[in-house]
Write a structure and sequence with these properties.
about 180 residues, globular
């Protein structure tokens, strides 16, 4: 009897890369990272330049990523038998790497402004909007991957976007 992998034709390379990218952005840490990065860009408005906002975002995300690794390592010590320490660190880093992935698009947009390829004001708002757009894409794509009809895909897009904006707004208020 054929397995699912044997029964389905191989996907083109670009579709496999697209699925891998979507998987990277759909994980809980990537969604959390998008919310965090978008809120950081928003509160970074007080900085003078896009480069300063970029440094602020990068530094903060790295600190939060390290905190997640630390939490994973501490939690791993409660399990018997405990994993070797370096294995726990590696697992924590891999599991929370979505936070770093979430930073890539907004950071690239801020960098484009910082080096003068577009006006800093434009790059800032593109970076700010990219987090919202990525949340919308994740909502739609996850509904599509689950076989939902197009109205439910739109509902997934709207729900993910609106809830993401709500959490981003609350994060901005907290900062």
């Amino acid at each position: 009897m054929a397995t699912d992998d044997e029964a389905s034709p191989p996907q083109p390379v670009h579709r496999r890369h697209l699925h891998r990218l979507l998987d990277a952005y759909s994980g809980e840490h990537a969604v959390y990272g998008l919310v965090l990065v978008t809120a950081l860009v928003a509160v970074g408005w007080e900085e003078d330049t896009d480069f300063e906002v970029l440094l602020f975002v990068f530094g903060t995300v790295v600190v939060f990523w390290l905190a997640h690794i630390y939490a994973a390592v501490v939690a791993s010590r409660a399990v018997r038998p405990a994993k070797p320490l370096m294995a726990a660190v590696g697992d924590g880093a891999r599991h929370s790497s979505g936070m770093l992935i979430a930073m890539l698009v907004p950071a690239a947009l801020l960098l484009v402004g910082a080096v003068g390829l577009v006006e800093e004001y434009t790059a800032y708002f593109l970076a700010l909007g990219s987090g919202i757009v990525l949340l919308a894409v994740i909502g739609y794509a996850n509904a599509a991957r689950n076989g939902s009809s197009w109205p439910w895909r739109i509902a997934g897009l709207l729900a993910t976007t609106l809830l993401g904006m709500l959490v981003i707004g609350l994060s901005i208020l907290a900062h």
